[in-house]
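Please complete every field before forwarding. Incomplete forms are returned to the sender.

SECTION A: IDENTIFIERS
Entry label: holo-170
Bound molecule: zinc ion
Molecule representation: SMILES string

SECTION B: INPUTS
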Amino acid sequence: MAREVNQFLSRVFVQRRKDGRTDLEAVESALRAALHQAGAAALTELLKFEAPAAEQRQLPCRCGHHAQYQELRSKPVLTIVGPVRVSRPYYLCAPCGAGQFPVDAELDIENTEFSPGVRRMQALVGQQAPFDHGRKQLKVLAGLEVTTKSVERTAEAIGADIAQREQEEI
Ligand SMILES: [Zn+2]
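SECTION C: PREDICTED COMPLEX
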């Protein structure tokens, strides 16, 4: 990480010596991108979970049977420092066919490829439709590439969740 940032700063200084100018916006944007990239690489390492120990290779299933550990599976997740991969144990219940990723529940990334931090951002920018504005805001403010559809979906899902909680409180 430090090496990449150093290389980037050397290029900035070389440029400044050449033309005597510093384009602050270009430098700050590129620096953020470099730091995000380093953060995403670190996060990907952190999100490599190990296969369970021999005595922890089964989990209770909702159907009453047990799900057995199958293998490590990975999926992409967009985090606030950019795209990462999470690799975690997969369990399958043979009698009912239901799969489980206990790590996804722990990390709050069940059935989604967006981290909790990114979902919070999407919900925030999704409060004002049209959702394409939200996509552009995330690009400028957070340096994140998301689709208009994902802003819409997350905003709706979080909206529905809030409405349901309010209903329950009533
Ligand atoms: Zn089952």
